[in-house]
Hints:
Elements: H1 9-18, E1 24-28, H2 35-43, E2 48-53, H3 54-70, E3 79-81, H4 89-100, E4 105-110, H5 112-125, E5 130-133, E6 146-150, E7 153-157, E8 164-168, H6 169-173, H7 179-202, H8 210-217, H9 220-223, H10 227-231, H11 235-255, H12 264-274, H13 286-305, H14 314-319, H15 324-335, H16 339-351, H17 355-379, H18 383-393, H19 406-419, H20 425-432, H21 435-442
Parallel strand pairs: 1-8, 2-3, 2-4, 4-5, 5-8
Antiparallel strand pairs: 6-7
Amino acid sequence: MPEIPRRDAFQLDKALLAARDTRRLSVGAGVRRATPAEFAATFGEVPAAIVADVNTFEAAGRDVLDAFQAAGAALVEPFVFGPDVHAEFGDVERLEEGLRGRDAVPVAVGSGTINDLTKLASHRLGRPYMAVATAASMDGYTAFGASITRHGSKQTFDCPAPSAVVADLEVIAAAPSPMNAWGYADLLAKNVAGADWILADALGVEPIDPGVWETVHGSLKAWVADPSGVARNEPAALANLIDGLMMSGFAMQAHQTSRPASGADHQFSHLWDMQDHTHEGVAPSHGFKVAVGTLASTALHEFLLDQNVEALDLDLAVASWPEFDRVEARILELFGPGALADKAIEETRAKHPAPDELRDQLVRLRDAWPDLRARLAEHLIPFEDVRERLRAVGGPTGPEGVGISRDRLRVAYDQAYYIRRRFTNLDVVRRLGLFDAAMDGIFAAGGRLGA
């Protein structure tokens, strides 16, 4: 792997200034003990309420509590979940009720679940909050919105990011395996998500915001350059990883959507969440589901790069475009009646173009293709390189790693298109009329995801 460059503190500070919600970020060894100072600098002399679960309280919460007490800072009784806490709306309500009687600013000590629960509960109570990261497991620490399951469906609730974040590299290095590998996989996915945004920009669907783009992609390839170092908990590799995850969150804050960090790669993960997929009795981690989605999306991008788009038959593509009643029938065939199909119909209707709009998009794609193809090829980390990086970090190198068969993954390409209105490479192959050809090529013997 290439040598890791020095961390760019200037870029972090620049992104922090542009962030809408987060005002302070402290990353380093031992900084959990400085949490009271960061809290006071952000919120003043108001009381703090530590929120954790039994595991994260032992990992860092107790030290944070001791530091507040040693500083003589105002505290209320901590709210500590048991080990069975989940990112579900019922637990949001439990936390909200527990905090309602505590006139204090919450301090979330944990990773994805604790952070998202505290983020949404704090927002519903009209309070800011602070996060203390216990693992480099995801990009949600500094992200706008909370991912919470409600009525059996994973949903993203709009709510502000934390006002301050502390990420102690000692705690992160001691995180249970493979939590930091989950975060690495989530960060690696930004590359292929960026390729989707390039396509959306080129077709006039969603323009790239240059400042937000630079926040994520200016240093992304450096941040993901040492998966083996992440697997070994090496300080430089973990520092780069946590920086990349925090910067991705800042980009989502600035854009007020997840577009800077999420494309077709995440749609596979969202699909399996919505299907309540489990492997060996538990739901696979978000990061590892995204890892498989990254492999799937990269394979599809490389299929597109092999196509002669300049020779596109526009008339045939437009004439073959289905009316929405046919699309709705296909959704019901894929999902069966119920809430998931209803959501898919809603999302797909929002992005389904009329024939004239489709023609305009395809003309733009055809005319831009030579330069667009070159840009995508330069941007993308190749499929075999992605797979090797995931192997090095200890992640899945194929769908079986999260309990998905090749046959089910092929169906998932079809299903994932319908569940989100976000424009990705899944939309491009549909518009080109190449979906079946893409599946045949990707899953053929010797194909990128062949048996």
